[in-house]
């Protein structure tokens, strides 16, 4: 009996020492068994590609997504792109293990979804066309493009081809901004002030590159329905005033030469709330959910109105501060796009 017990004990020790099959360590349990949504990045010329990859690929965040490949892209005539694309490409390849490919077509073959990250909005439409043709769900980093007509066209193509697509600044999901419309403590929202920067505007309307981080919360809080936009710009202050349906007012302010944090002040009937930056994580959680479900959390119509607001700001400035109709500007952009398509077909 004792010999039999010794034999069983030895056998148990042998089996315990064998490598486990189909079992992960406690820290990674289940990760290998769950399908991973493979993501590719277009445009490795913004700090976002590093920050996003760190979050998405971190096992502790349990995103179910992984950035696996990237196409560097880059704009030689745009310093913010040309001066950074090589550094960020090397960092993603050497530190994060991304496969670097030579074309967007090749990238689409290797992934399940695309993050369009190019810091320059000018090539976005052409880059997005390839992704849409491949049928890959698409998230577009700011700015969507460099003009309103192309913003409209990008979303039109995505809808026409049944490709899930959306865009957003991280500022939409800052604490205090997200959910403001349903905040009972605030009560009915009557106005909103946002502070940002319009100082960086190479090749783009003046609010597209940095101003978007303030304008996005404005629409998150007040919703769609901006009717007119006026702009007053001096050496000290750049102010854009939007009039919404129901007499609500939203303002963008750049305190030129002064401190202008990305701050949102929301005025409700019952209370006033000030919201500040909450980082990238809330946005990235929305991006993960989008790729898993295929449901964009922000409508194309709202994003188009946001870019119309920013375009209207420049148009108002050109007209000496006159009010510009957002609806008419969108209509003009749609008409110009249709004329361009007709010209190409002739």
Automatic annotation (TrEMBL):
GO terms for molecular function: nucleotide binding. Residues 85-166 form the Gfo/Idh/MocA-like oxidoreductase N-terminal domain. Residues 1-24 form the signal peptide. Keywords: Signal. Pfam families: GFO_IDH_MocA. This is Oxidoreductase family, NAD-binding Rossmann fold.
């Amino acid at each position: 009996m004792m010999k039999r017990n010794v034999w069983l004990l030895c056998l148990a020790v042998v089996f315990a020492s064998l490598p486990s099959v189909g079992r992960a360590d406690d820290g990674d349990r289940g990760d290998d068994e769950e399908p991973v949504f493979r993501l590719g990045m277009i445009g490795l010329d913004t700090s976002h590609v590093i920050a996003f990859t760190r979050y998405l690929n971190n096992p502790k965040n349990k995103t179910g997504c992984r950035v696996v490949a990237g196409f560097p892209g880059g704009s030689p005539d745009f310093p913010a792109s040309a001066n950074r694309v090589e550094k960020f490409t090397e960092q993603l390849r050497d530190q994060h293990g991304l496969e670097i490919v030579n074309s967007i077509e090749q990238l689409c073959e290797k992934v399940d979804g695309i993050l369009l990250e190019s810091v320059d909005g000018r090539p976005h439409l052409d880059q997005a066309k390839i992704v849409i043709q491949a049928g890959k769900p698409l998230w577009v980093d700011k700015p969507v493009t460099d003009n309103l007509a192309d913003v409209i066209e990008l979303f039109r193509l995505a809808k026409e081809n049944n490709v899930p697509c959306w865009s957003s600044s991280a500022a939409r999901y800052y604490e205090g901004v997200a959910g403001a419309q349903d905040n009972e403590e605030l009560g009915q929202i009557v106005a909103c002030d946002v502070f940002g920067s319009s100082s960086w505007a190479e090749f783009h309307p003046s609010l597209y590159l940095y101003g978007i981080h303030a304008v996005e919360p404005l629409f998150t809080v007040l919703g769609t329905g901006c009717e007119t936009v006026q702009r007053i710009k001096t050496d000290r202050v750049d102010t854009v005033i939007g009039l919404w349906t129901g007499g609500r007012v939203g303002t963008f302010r750049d305190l030129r030469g002064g401190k202008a944090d990305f701050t949102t002040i929301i005025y409700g009937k019952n209370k006033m709330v000030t919201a500040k930056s909450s980082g990238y994580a809330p946005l990235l959680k929305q991006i993960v959910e989008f790729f898993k479900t295929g449901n964009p959390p922000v409508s194309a119509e709202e994003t188009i109105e946001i870019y119309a607001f920013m375009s209207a700001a420049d148009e108002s400035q050109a007209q000496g501060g006159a009010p510009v109709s957002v609806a008419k500007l969108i209509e003009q952009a749609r008409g110009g796009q249709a004329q361009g398509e007709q010209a190409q077909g002739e």
